[in-house]
Amino acid sequence: MQTIGRTLKQIRLAKGFTQKEIYQGIVSRSFAIRLESGQHDLGASKLFLILDRLGVSAGEFRFIQNDYQPDTATDLNSQIMLAYDQQNFPLLSHLAQRYQASDNPTEQRMAVMAATLLVAFDHEHVVLSPAMAHLWQQFTFTKTWTLQDLKVGPVLLALAGFKHEPLPALIRRFHVTCERYVTATTDQFDVMDDRSSFDLVALQVLLVHQEYAAARAFRSQVEAGYLNHLSTDGALAQQLCLCIWNAYFGDFEQANDLASRLKTLPLSRYQPGIHSLLNSWLPRAKHYRQTQNS
Questions:
Q1: Membrane-crossing residues (predicted)?
Q2: What is the pTM of this model?
Q3: pLDDT beyond 80 at 127
Q4: Residue 111 shares a structural domain with residue 124
Q5: Which alpha helices (DSSP H) does the chain contain, by range?
Q6: Residue 275, pLDDT score
Q7: Is pLDDT at 118 greater than 90 in this prediction?
């Protein structure tokens, strides 16, 4: 990984800026020369001012500094959550086994997340491993969740289910955290997509744990927030959630029709798992309705 100064120089030259245009009023000319040659470091406040002039976010700067590669945590988290969304359980198992003995704490944490998702929903009485219990403590003792925590919402739900923690309270905390990052005009970090993916899992967890009153009341939360910011995948996750909800508590025929349409959609993040997801939940919903009417 390059030094901060050399990365700043790389970006500055690529954008055609002079040193004066970028550094004037922030650091001296002599300091800027030594900084770009790797001889000096820089405090965060001045770095942010320089990045603003360069028109580069802190996240993009780190990406460029790492030779245009994502950091380990981002890369592994993306692999795990994609595998989960697509119900690719062999890949989840592979990632859990590959990184569980890693010397890197970040990789170990990701391995625990993958292992948690593997046993998430059809195993209500799982005994948490020490690593899973430690991960749950990290989440619960954190006063304020960050974007990294929002990216692993399904893991939070799975752990809460295993611990028999109140799911509605966890869901509400997740939604409140999302609201801090989104406005009517801006969703800089695609948080609404994270919320939509989380809600799809949340409804399933509520149903698995037979919290039917909370599941019935959940529709209003699924349709809340700034839905105009949803991407195609985010909107699809919401529609899948509403399809399952309608199958249980709304118009079953309408849910069946929506399920048929969703199964024929062009390839998306969720496509490999759409059929198995709907084929699993619609029969359960039908059985639930029959038991309610008997």
A1: none
A2: 0.83
A3: no
A4: no
A5: 4-15, 19-23, 29-36, 44-54, 58-65, 72-85, 89-99, 105-118, 130-141, 147-150, 153-163, 167-181, 191-208, 212-216, 219-222, 232-249, 252-263, 271-293
A6: 84
A7: no
